[in-house]
Recover the amino acids of this structure.
């Protein structure tokens, strides 16, 4: 189960006990906000794309939408999301639980500027009913991100 992978991954920082598991689904932004009793925009959604045949993750604020022209300017290709049925095989987590933790080392993680409005955000933890509250500096450290990008619209 991929939440167990995330728990093990977080052991190196001794934060695995900060993971919250819910009796209800947190697979969508709206469901996660309901489970966490927070605003949807504070949910850090991890979106999986293919760039040059390789999987990448872009972590965005819950209210942000990918802007195709910004995405293409950043990654020099059209935004092509990984299909939900391919998610576990390529990312290591199921759709609805995708996160930048405990993933294969070759997957690059990008953090979108839309997250910078918040002191803390809530990314998933590998299952469709989990999350963790992280500061932005913690998100940077634990995700192993490669850079901040500006590929979204609808949030500013």
């Amino acid at each position: 189960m991929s939440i167990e992978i995330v728990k093990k991954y977080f052991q190196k920082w001794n934060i695995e006990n900060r993971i919250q598991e819910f009796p209800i689904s947190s697979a969508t932004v709206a469901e996660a906000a309901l489970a966490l009793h927070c605003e949807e925009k504070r949910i850090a959604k991890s979106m999986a794309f293919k760039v040059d045949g390789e999987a990448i993750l872009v972590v965005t604020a819950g209210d942000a939408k990918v802007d195709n022209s910004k995405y293409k300017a950043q990654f020099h290709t059209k935004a092509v999301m990984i299909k939900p049925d391919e998610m576990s095989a390529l990312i290591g987590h199921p759709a609805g639980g995708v996160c930048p933790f405990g993933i294969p080392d070759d997957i690059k993680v990008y953090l979108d500027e839309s997250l910078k409005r918040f002191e803390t955000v809530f990314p998933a933890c590998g299952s469709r009913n989990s999350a963790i509250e992280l500061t932005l500096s913690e998100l940077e450290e634990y995700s192993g991100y490669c850079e901040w990008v500006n590929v979204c619209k609808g949030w500013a």
